[in-house]
Amino acid sequence: MDTNRWKVSVTTFNCGKEFPVENAKAIVNQLLFPYDDGISQLELQDIYVLGFQELVPIWQGSFPTVNRDLINGITTTATNCLNEKVIAVEGNEQYSCLGVNSIGAITVIVLYNNNVLSVKGNVLRRNGKCGWFSTNLKGGTLISFNIARNADETWERFSFVCAHLNANEGVSNRNQRINDYKRIMSEVCDPKITESDHFFFLGDLNFRVTSPYDPATDYSSATTLRRLLEDNEELNLLRRKEDEQIFKGFHELEIKFPPTYKFKLFEEQTYNPKRTPSWCDRILYKTYATPTSTQDGIYRSVPRSKALLFSDHQPVNLTVTLPRSTGETGRSLLYIEKYALGWSSGLIGQVGDAVIGYCGWLMAKNAHYWILGSVLLYVLLKIL
């Protein structure tokens, strides 16, 4: 085991407003071990992170207690899947849940090797809302902690933000995504967080390809992918602007996989022509002082196996080896642009979440038909 480096696996997946619980093990296995062929020697990581967006229907995200059993079940399944791999290789359990955080339908789960790692102090959890009227329709959830190898006195802070930004194509929606990012970072970050040795931002960031969809596009061509990413991909274009502050201080490994959205449901490789195929699902991480340190990783999409075809998104995984902190690497501050919130935004958001939640619940239970029928019956009785 290399004790001079951190081995981290991060996966993001938009579930399309549902998670088939009956198939949880197959789904989680695919997310944790995207390219495990069952033959090659599997290299286990120090830390595993699973980030979900639209894990549940939108209305259900307004009721955290309703989602608790589902999230706990996924966490337990992920822990068991990891330990089954360990037992097969080394003969004993090693992994446990370090922490979970959620907002709305967005969840981040962190698992770690508790045989060789120790966590210091409290695990920090923060949330930022950026949906309509400050609701949790969109937003980000952060989990942050200090960790070290056993018998090592050098504690390092890891921070992970799992986010779901504004959707749809067009300049106005792109600009809203920029504002969403700034608002989330402003709400969840303080000096302690911005000084994290290791910081990841993952999720359905929803940045789009601006050129019209051409069904004849060959997404298996590296030349085609490079052209689209350099000339027509919103986030890459934004980050090349010197005056643009979005993801300033972050690094993203080169994308070499086809767009991850929007697929036809239950079809492995067929894009839905209603949307231009885009790289909505992304994972970025904090830039280190040594440039070569940011290059040591594998950035890839997760194969759309049968277990994952229920969503129109393709998961993305980043498996990366990170430098240990020396007081020089990773201590640079992230740029956080302060986002001004109105004094009433919190209250408005709470009311909005309640309205969305209960209205959605009524529709899910078909109660709106009974309500409409009762109103019509009342009107008819008044007329007659």
Structural summary, described in words:
The chain folds into two domains: about 5-340, Deoxyribonuclease I, Chain A; about 345-384. The model has no long low-confidence stretch (mean pLDDT about 90). By secondary structure, it is of the alpha+beta class. It is globular. The protein has helices at about 25-30, 65-90, 170-190, 190-195, 220-230, 235-240, 345-365, 365-384, and strands at about 5-15, 45-55, 95-105, 105-115, 115-130, 140-150, 155-165, 200-205, 250, 280-285, 295-300, 315-325. It has a six-stranded mixed β-sheet, with helices on one face.
Outline, from the CA principal axes? globular
Low-pLDDT runs: none
Largest sheet: 6 strands, mixed
What is the arithmetic mean of pLDDT? 88
**In what range is the share of β-strand residues?**
15-25%
Distance between the termini: 83 Å
Order of helices and strands: EHEHEEEEEHHEHHEEEEHH
Class from secondary-structure proportions:
alpha+beta
Largest beta sheet: what is the strand line-up?
3-4-2-1-12-11
- CATH architectural label of the largest domain: 4-Layer Sandwich
CATH homology superfamily of the largest domain: Endonuclease/exonuclease/phosphatase
Instruction: Tally the helices.
Output: 8
Fraction of helical residues: 25-40%
By CATH reckoning, the class of the largest domain would read Alpha Beta
The number of strands is: 12
CATH fold type of the largest domain: Deoxyribonuclease I, Chain A
Provide the gyration radius in Å.
Answer: 22 Å
Number of domains: 2
